[in-house]
Predict the structure.
Amino acid sequence: MPRFSANISMLYPELPFLDRFAAAASDGFKAVEYVGAYDQPTAVLVDLLQEHGLTQALFNLPAGNWAAGERGIACHPDRVAEFRESVDKAIEYAKANGCTQVNCLAGIAPAGVARAELESVLAENLRYAAPRLAAEGIMLLLEPINTRDMPGFLINSTDDYERIAAAVGHENLYLQYDFYHMQIVQGDLIPTFQRLQSRIGHVQIADHPGRHEPGTGEINYANIFKVLDEAGYSGWVGAEYRPKAGTSAGLGWFETWRSAAR
Ligand SMILES: O=C(O)[C@H](O)C(=O)CO
Ligand SMILES: [Mg+2]
């Protein structure tokens, strides 16, 4: 049975961030994930997880100045020292809240730098991060993201992931397979999941078009959930979508799993 994690960077936008833990637990989620909460002391986050019986499924490495439009710094040639510091920060937070995987956002390609150089910086940064995270029992993930939602984002497809993973050459670099992005970029969702399953550390879901709840668009999630089960996928499935109505009101797709998990 798939285990779902509420992505509280996207779900419960009607609530302040720290109130979203309680809301996710009350709606039947057993785990939460988010882009990052580095502005909060670790103790606050740990208390919320404990109070609501939640697992921290995932968060991202510090991704630069999000409010200013940055979406990761890992491919930026002039930010290598900052990237290295960000690995230490992520380890500190992951160890505090028991999280065993972190996602690296490659970043938006800076203008005027050749793609080959950006990929080389990214690979070097990941080669730095992978063994350090492995030593702490934390999986490092790399997520391809479509460029309609994030114009200029460097890593867009599973081909991009595979090429970078080959350049990094460390086994602790897994794929974060977001079905929504993959539907836009390349389709072929199930065969690609099956082919790369041994390298997939985390999956995320949203329907397309609109990035709303499963069942609102063209992706057959009933079948995908069946495939995840048949494949023995044991990781979390991150519900990372923009609710069409209120978050709780839109959880019809989750009813079967929520009842079974109680
Ligand atoms: O947007 C996504 O799909 C990501 O998973 C993310 O963490 C950054 O937005
Ligand atoms: Mg995602």
Remarks:
- The first strand starts at residue 3 and ends at 7.
- Residues 143, 178, 204, 240 surround magnesium ion (ligand 2) (CB under 6 Å).
- The radius of gyration is 17 Å.
